[in-house]
Amino acid sequence: MEIVEGIGIGIAVILGAILFLFVRRAIVTRSGGIIRLSVRTSTMLDGRGWSPGFGRFLGDELRWYRMFSFAVRPRRVLSRDGLTVERRRLPEGQERMSMPADWIILRCTSRHAPVEIAMARSTVTGFLSWLEAAPPGAVSPRVASQDWPAA
Predict the structure, then answer these.
(1) pLDDT digits over 32-81, tens only?
(2) Closest-CA residue to 21 (of 55, 72, 64)
(3) Is the Cβ–Cβ distance between 106 and 118 less than 8 Å?
(4) What is the mean pLDDT of residues 117-137?
(5) What is the DSSP letter of 81?
(6) Domain limits of the chain?
(7) Element of type H or E holding 55
(8) Rounded to 5 degrees, what angle do the CA atoms 118, 94, 126 make?
(9) For the domain with range 33-132, which CATH number is right: 2.60.120.10, 2.30.29.30, 3.20.20.10, 3.40.50.10860?
(10) Long-range contact pairs involving 116-120 (C-beta distance under 8 Å, separation at least 24)
(11) 3 state DSSP class of 47
């Protein structure tokens, strides 16, 4: 009987964890402005270190949440004020196997450190529009280079 109780408790814990993941995702995505977004969390190996997740635009911040995490808070917050896009590129080598074919990788510099983010080609336009948003008549210096390769 003890074995059956142990198995039952184990199944209940697993189902509770799965339910919590779905509830967490529903709480984070409740008010729209969500994009699929991968962030490179480690640069130790070429083409590796990408973590899938989703980003949420909230005012002047892009908040990134890991896809498979129990955390309710964002794992990383990118402020529009200190963010500059250095270049963009297509996935290379091992990256082609870890993300969809139509994704673009953006190398950005924030106030804290460089960061690489990957998103769908159709999302890049919206991201750059959000990044360059400025009051009427002002010029935004946030996009460093306009001579990007055709994607």
Answers:
(1) 678 889 998 766 566 667 888 888 888 888 888 888 777 767 888 888 88
(2) 72
(3) yes
(4) 81
(5) G
(6) 33-132
(7) strand 50-58
(8) 15
(9) 2.30.29.30
(10) 116/39, 116/40, 116/43, 117/37, 117/38, 117/39, 117/40, 117/55, 117/64, 117/78, 118/37, 118/38, 118/39, 118/40, 118/50, 118/91, 119/35, 119/36, 119/37, 119/38, 119/55, 120/35, 120/36
(11) coil
Considering only CA atoms, which of 74, 63, 62, 75 is closest in space to residue 133? 62
| pTM of the shown model | 0.67
The amino acid present at 93, given as its one-letter code, is G
Query: What are 76-101's pLDDT values in tens digits?
Result: 888 888 788 999 999 888 888 888 88
